[in-house]
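hi! just following up on the protien thing from before. the input was this:
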Amino acid sequence: MIAAAFAALALLASPATAVDPGPPTAATASPAPIPAAVPVLDWQPCAAGRAWPGGAQCATARVPLDHRDPAGAALDLPLIRVPAADPGRRIGTLVLQPGGPGGSGVDFVDDNYADLPAELRERFDILGFDARGVGRSAQVRCWDDARYKKAVTEALGAPGPDGLARAVAEAEDFNAACVQASGDRLPFLGTGYVARDIDLIRAALGEERISFYGRSFGTYIGTVYADLFPGRVRAMALDGAYDPVAYAEQPYAYDLPQFLALDRAAGRLLDWCAATPAQCTFGAGDPHGAFDRLVRALDADPVAIPGRGTANGYTLVYRLMFNINGGRADWPDLAAALARAEARDPGSFLLSPPSPGSFAFLTPNVVVECTDRVYPPGEAMLAARLGAAARLAPKLGPAMAYGPPTYDHNHAPACTRWPAERPSRHTGPYTAAGSVPLLVLGTTGDPDTPYQDAVALAGRLDNARLLTFAAEGHTAFGRSVCAQEAVVRYLVDGLPPRDGTVCADEKPPAPPAASSVERRGSAPGTVAPGASAGARDGAELIGNPYRAGSRT
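and the predicted 3d structure came back as:
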């Protein structure tokens, strides 16, 4: 979106002051990171993107590829900031960190700045950056688009008995492609190094402490930063939180609740369909059975999508996985899209095949997680754990467990045989000892980051407050007035809400006449302007996290 701005910027690497990298971790037996030179930021007006009041500014931060060797090879990280609209009342810099891994922080700011509460725009410089290996930051590459398209087109929504063997073979092919295309970068894309990059950016900005809002995977980045640099956090809101110990050290134990959360969220959508046939015509009174039949029917006879290839049962599962994150307000649109898919209407956004925009997100999603996490070796354990996930999450689990390397649930086949070393991963203790109070937000019906993760993180941090959003969908900020007001007050005033605060103001499903994306006059075979997945692959939007094609 604003690539021209970064292409025009010089690559600067003549900093003078060293930054303390924080205490070494036990991530590997490799030498600990050593102080790195502070980047020099040459802020220029962004050449593209939106014309925000005060002007968006772009710069490039040069950081070490390997923080153990700061004088060696370097990476250039693109940055964007929008200065505080009220400079006289400016507090400092607020870093916005999107989900993923794989979400562009530059686009996250550019796409969402206008939707931020006015008080945040007035009081903070709003800053985003593309993390190493993501977006414009030396993006990691593995399969090319043609190979990725082949993998997702041939994947099945209801895999057969050869599902595991096929998943392992594709994972091995994906890993080999990563080594061939990005072998020099693979060891250095872990979140431990991303956190050190953030601290270099903080120093380059001249800030003693930063404020931070992270959502989804952005909460893990924030947690690692606070663990390494607890004294450099002014305020940190972690929305849709990860349990960092389970994520990094107990990956199978982390993955199963994610399978269950996704499947149960889909089940609650279908329960609502059964209970409200006036708002959900899908399935003719048996939406659960109809969904299972539809997945198998699409596998057996895919639907041709003009200009996009074909859609089968895997396509349906993949799209539902992302689009269910919007919560109850999106259920009528999802119901209408399911009905259109049942009618084999290629205009259903749930039949939109993954595109190259998807692959640019999914590749770093796999690579970063395989760098951050160490799965126990062994084919027997892999078979048992994926088999359990497929059985216990029967609607969406089989497609995700045995699909090609794409998103969180199906990383195990690739990560169990990951070919690169991991000097850039972080291994805790994830306590952020000595930090200011950190705010953790969890959504009870979250299909992507299960609520118990937020509870676990709040309990592990030395100084944290937990805010609960009693709702469906992924993350709270922008979807709950109650939660958003609490976050704003915390970020501005440094005062977190009372621990255990519960917000229960989720928007209910809209009545049929008000439901939007499937009722905008789109003709059969088209996708309505602004429709959900497929219209804007890769965007992540505040308040509606993954609609409009986010992360898909």
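The CA atoms of residues 25 and 447 lie 32 Å apart.
The chain is about 40% helix and 15% strand.
cheers
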